[in-house]
Structure to design on (372 residues):
DNA sequence: CCTACCGATCGGTAGG
DNA sequence: CCTACCGATCGGTAGG
């Protein structure tokens, strides 16, 4: 006899994040998602109410992780340089520990309806403002542009970094900070 | 009487690039594409043979633009620093002048079948190798990582830069080069 | 380039 | 969580 799979709502949301990250929202069907969980498509609707709601939940989880990380980093006592280091280390941790939610947050937010999309854009801007603020404290000439450049490096990690490689997490943080502070002349 | 729209194959490919860039490959239906051209879905098939072929064509156009740009930059005489500047200026030109093909190249290549995807990955690695080579000539400590960081900044332009803003193209190039060479301490 | 289709798949529901 | 569906939309074809 075959056993029926029984899944929690959290299983559904987490697996949705995985598939949205890998194949994109429009590239993932509800039947794909159900199959990944060992269910039939219709069974998903006892856990969630719509595919769109699932995307909202995953993307907002990503947004929340980044904001929590930034809030903690800004609360670090000491110099602004130390807070910048905490911001970068926190960002790296969020990307590497919650890759699916981060990828969905970064790449699929554009699919959301107007209301949710603008909420996500606002969250992103608030997060970026944390970087601008610390960079301002460090008397950087153009904190806005510096924040964009640093976050470009950080957000791109999702596209190339593999934890199985030779570059360890702490080294990665140091390399990014070194590059941001001094460029390639080190 | 209403006039029949008559489109060229190139119109179809260019418009496909626009929609793939904006909504993603899976978020664009052939009827969406046709409507954007003032046609009915079935009319597209006198120009192209499949939706997948359309994606291949747009992505390979993006790959080709970047490679041509790098080849020209590497042919620049003078110092390695000058060649790096040519690489960065060329990349910025490609992104700003061919935004749709670039966005599709960067964000939708993963949708391609195995054969085409690995071809695109190889093209990307060849392009990145141009950066590694020039950075090596400049005696950078870790040319591989420096190339990744610089390209992270360059590829992210697609996500935030608006030509209507106050930052001009040449200033953008200078800012990126300054950041890459010296970091935020300038 | 349009008319008229095709089978397959989509997100989702009713009811058990 | 499954069975049995639903109408809508998908990529694509035949023929003019």
């Amino acid at each position: 006899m075959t056993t029926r799979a029984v899944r929690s709502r959290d299983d559904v949301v987490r697996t949705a994040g995985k598939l949205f990250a890998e194949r994109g929202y429009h590239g993932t069907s509800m039947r794909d998602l159900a199959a990944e969980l060992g269910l039939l498509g219709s069974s998903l609707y006892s856990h969630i109410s719509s595919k769109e709601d699932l995307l909202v939940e995953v993307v907002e989880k990503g947004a929340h992780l980044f904001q929590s990380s930034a809030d903690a980093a800004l609360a670090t006592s000491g110099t602004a340089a130390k807070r910048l280091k905490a911001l970068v280390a926190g960002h790296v941790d969020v990307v590497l520990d919650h890759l699916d939610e981060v990828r969905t947050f970064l790449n699929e937010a554009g699919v959301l309806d107007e209301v949710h999309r603008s909420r996500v854009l606002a969250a992103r801007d608030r997060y970026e403002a944390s970087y601008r603020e610390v960079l301002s404290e460090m008397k950087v000439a153009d904190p806005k542009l510096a924040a964009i450049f640093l976050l470009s490096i950080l957000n791109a990690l999702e596209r190339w970094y593999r934890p199985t490689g030779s570059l360890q997490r702490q080294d990665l943080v140091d390399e990014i900070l070194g590059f941001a502070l001094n460029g390639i002349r080190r």
